[in-house]
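User: Let's play a game. I give you a shape written as tokens, and you guess the letters that built it. Ready? Here's round one.
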């Protein structure tokens, strides 16, 4: 038989694994507040392969602090940030691997320093291959930060307010009336379909003020 910890035992510091229980306690009014402990998310290296006239995968969503590693599998290519207009790549100056060549590797760390120096609307970084831009060899990196509901790459009180509007609690998978469905999606940091205190833990963890 599973014995639930009394709400009072959750006062103070609560580990992420206890959050569902803590959420219930909060909702029952048996716990005024909790301090969340959230393990720092590990940094991930994402690989994009360059072959034929494709970036694989062409679309990548990463977290702030992750690295993208482009690997030349076959063909002559480069990686240049920007968009393709009328078949021509228009470089926006945010990043570039160098001149087109064979058998290269190119890594870029999308950390706070980078996104502050090279900001992109909603953290979306489009890029292309100069050689094959006219054939549609394009890719996009979307950088997201947990809790950043308005997608300006910092987590502040504006995000907190939007989060609060969207916080429906565990297992509620539709946006409350005062919450825009897109905001609801963005407030669901752990992508499990609901907006609850687990997501709030992620927001709190990234809070920059
Ligand atoms: Ca924000
Ligand atoms: Ca969630
Ligand atoms: Cu190419």
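Assistant: Ready! My guess for every position:
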């Amino acid at each position: 038989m599973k014995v639930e910890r009394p709400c009072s035992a959750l006062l103070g510091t609560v580990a992420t694994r206890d959050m569902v229980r803590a959420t219930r306690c909060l909702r029952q009014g048996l716990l005024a507040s909790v301090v969340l402990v959230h393990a720092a998310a590990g940094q991930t290296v994402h690989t994009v392969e360059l072959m034929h006239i494709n970036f694989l995968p062409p679309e990548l969503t990463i977290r702030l602090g992750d690295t993208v590693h482009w690997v030349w599998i076959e063909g002559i290519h480069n990686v240049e940030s920007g968009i393709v207009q009328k078949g021509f790549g228009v470089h926006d100056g945010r990043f570039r691997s160098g001149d087109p060549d064979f058998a290269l590797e190119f890594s870029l760390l999308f950390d706070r320093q980078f996104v502050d120096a090279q900001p992109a609307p909603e953290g979306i970084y489009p890029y292309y291959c100069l050689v094959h831009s006219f054939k549609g060899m394009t890719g996009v990196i979307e950088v997201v930060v947990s809790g950043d509901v308005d997608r300006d790459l910092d987590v502040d009180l504006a995000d907190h307010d939007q989060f609060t509007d969207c916080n429906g609690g565990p297992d509620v998978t539709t946006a409350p009336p005062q919450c825009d469905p897109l905001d609801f999606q963005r407030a669901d940091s752990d992508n499990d379909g609901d907006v609850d205190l687990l997501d709030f833990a992620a927001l709190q963890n990234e809070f920059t003020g």
